[in-house]
Amino acid sequence: MKLLTYDSGSGPRCGVLSDNLVVDVTALLGADHTLRDVRALLESGDSPLDRVRDALASDIAAPGVPLPMVRLRAPVLQPPTLRDFFSYEAHANGQGARTLHEAWYRLPVFYFSNTLRVFGPEDVVPVPSATDRLDYEMELGCVIGREGSDIKAVDALDYIAGFCILNDWSARDLQFDEMAVGLGPAKGKDAASSLGPWLVTTDEMAPYLRDGRLQVKCTIRVNGDVWLDAGDGGTSYHGWGDYVERASKDSRIVPGDVLGSGTVSGGSIPEAIALGIDNARYLQPGDVVEMEVEGIGTLRNTLGPKENVDPDYRYKPIA
Questions:
Q1: What value does the mean pLDDT of the chain take?
Q2: What pLDDT, on a 0 to 100 scale, did the predictor assign at position 94?
Q3: Three-class secondary structure of residue 245 per DSSP
Q4: Cβ atoms of 297 and 140 closer than 8 Å
């Protein structure tokens, strides 16, 4: 199934895609309150994905709206947490430009991103005022469907409701300064993350799941020009089971949590430049960034103007 969050004029609601119609999940399940996004469905308990699947297969009548007539939102409007991993070797080592610490191979490391700045498909994403080096990062994302702690990697797929695309927008000049003093990426990742276009349930993605990884082709287009052609989502050093085990160790994951895979090899602008992509450069207001993943779909955003520009604010990036 493809579960989504949409707005047809009366606020966000959880939906499911059926024959190019967006079916209202609240009505489909006869819920006694509005399920305003996919997180709300997952939090409703009692095997929510099975209930939606069974209802679709039954004769239950529920309103449907043609997909082109709705505004898609991020499938999870505000995740409880957003943990972003760092798991593709060619991205981590700068396409071979540097040697990675041994801990990178031993541990699936992650940072926490900002859950208050999550954008959806077709949203206009404002350019942070303090950066001159705005980058995209093409990632795969999963959404947690069950609460758990200390989960073993072998059991991890039982806790994943499904997969989506994650664009981890990155202000590189801010990020590099922060990390030079031993913290971060913090402000370098604070302004925006994009999720979408919907959540494809784990059972539907099963044909692409091999060795705990999504063997999917990934493409990036900027203003219609291809900046990453057929990147391989299956080359991560660590797998989804490793992410879930690491995230839940001595901690807790809950429905609606998002885990990012880290940037697919070739999925950032410095890599596009290093790989000789014509016209590759840092992003500017007005740029249209499209990320397409096999089996999932396309996540598209347009960059808006820089927000809250203060002429008296001076940020001096490292050389």
A1: 94
A2: 86
A3: helix
A4: no
CA distance 208 to 222: 26
| Count of alpha carbons within 13 angstroms of residue 33, beta-carbon side | 6
Q: How far apart are CA 113 and CA 275, in angstroms?
A: 28
Measured CA to CA, the distance from residue 87 to residue 22 in angstroms comes to 34
Q: Tell me how crowded residue 210 is: count the other CB atoms within 10 A of its CB.
A: 11
145-155 burial, b for 16+ CB within 10 Å, e for fewer? bbebeebebee
Which residue in this structure is represented by tokens 């047809």? 8
Nearest to 292 by CA among 229, 234, 235: 229
CA quadruple 220, 90, 117, 282: dihedral, nearest 10:
-60
Question: Would you say 77 and 253 are in contact if contact means Cβ atoms under 8 Å apart?
Answer: no
Tell me the whole-structure pTM to 2 decimals.
Answer: 0.95
Over residues 109-128, mean pLDDT: 97
Q: Is the pLDDT of residue 314 over 60?
A: no
Q: How far, in Å, CA of 77 to CA of 65, rounded?
A: 20
In the DSSP assignment, the letter for residue 284 is -
What is the C-alpha separation between 272 and 247, in angstroms, rounded?
Answer: 30
> For a pLDDT cut of 70, what percent of the chain falls above it?
97
Whole-angstrom Cα distance, residue 73 to residue 5? Answer: 5
